[in-house]
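Worked example
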Amino acid sequence: MLLAITRGVSATLNEGQLTYKPREPIDIELARLQHRGYEETLESLGATIVHLPPRDEFPDAVFVEDAAVVVDEVAVITTPGAPSRAAEGEALADTIARYRPVVRLTPPATLDGGDVIRIGTSLFVGLSTRTNAAGIDQLRALLAPFGYSVTPVAVRGALHLKTAATYAGRDTLLANPAWADLSAFKGLRIVNVPAQEPWGASVLDVNGTLVLPASFPATRSELERAGFQCRAVDLSELQKAEGGPTCLSILLNT
C-alpha cells in the first residue's frame, strides 16, 4: 500500500522562510483548498493519505517532506536548514515511527528532505543553502548499513535539489541544468524544462503518473512527448512559499 503523509496548511504560512522568491501575500484559505485538491489527486492515483493537522508554530510545516528521509528499511528525521524549522522533524517522528524504525541527524548537520532524490538504492543529495556537508555525511553513515549510496550534488540558484531536478521514473531526470550540477546522474536521460518555466522541474511520481503544478503547461507537454502520463494540480498559493508537489508529502510503501 502506498501511503502519503501530509500536513495541513498553517495559518502562519505567510511568515514562512523564503530564499529565492519575492514575498507575495498568500491566500491561506485558497492554499488549504489547493492542498486538499493535491491530496485528492494523490488519492485518485492510489495513495492513502495520512493527514496530520496544521502546526501554526511552524509556518512551513505543510512542506512535510523536508522533515524526514524515508527508505524501505528506516526513516531519518532530519535537521532542517532554516532555524525556524528545526523542530519539525520531532513533530513528525511519532507518525513516521508507525511505519519505519526512526533514526536522527544531529547538529551540526543540516539537511532538508527536499534536497534528496532517491533512485533505487542511490540517493543524490543537494548541497544547498539548507543542506550542508555534515548532513550529507551523517545521512551516508546512517544508510550505508542498508546498502544505500549517497552522492552530493551542487545546487545553485534554487532552494533545493528537487527544485532543480526530480526523478520521473524510467531512467529519466527532469531538470533545470542551470540550477544544479547534473554530472552525478550518469546514464540517465535528461529532459530539460522549457526556458520559460525554470521552476517546472519538480514533479512527483505517484504509481507511474507524474503530478505537477498546473502553472507549467509547457513542461507537461515535454513530459508527455517523452511518454509520461501527467496530472496537473493548482498549487499557486503554495508555490508562493517556494513549495511544489514533491515537498507536500512523504510517500512510503507499507
